[in-house]
Amino acid sequence: MQINIVMGKVKITQVKSGIDRPKRQKDTLKALGLGKLHRTVEHEATPQIMGMIKKVDHLVKVVEG
């Protein structure tokens, strides 16, 4: 999944469960403020946040704005 967003806001929604995922992915979801299905959080699109999204992109949906 290719995400090209230039320093704006991104809305991240968890769409798949973190159950039976490696601890590192669970910790990344928690650090993003997620943990329950269909929870949505909004973050600045910094390189750090975008890297975290890339690690769990199979568990989340990302929307610009």
Please supply descriptive tags for the structure shown above.
alpha+beta, 65 residues, three-stranded antiparallel β-sheet, Ribosomal Protein L30, Chain: A
Description:
With 65 residues, this protein is of the alpha+beta class. The chain has a single domain, classed as Ribosomal protein L30/L7 (Ribosomal Protein L30, Chain: A), CATH 3.30.1390. Helix content is 29%, strand content 25%. A 3-stranded antiparallel sheet has the order 2-1-3, with no helix packed on it. The radius of gyration is 11 Å and the shape is globular. The two termini are 18 Å apart.
Question: How would a crystallographer describe the biggest sheet?
Answer: 3 strands, antiparallel
Which architecture name does CATH use? 2-Layer Sandwich
| Number of discrete domains | 1
Give unreliable regions as ranges: none
Strand order of the largest sheet: 2-1-3
CATH superfamily: Ribosomal protein L30/L7
Provide the gyration radius in Å: 11 Å
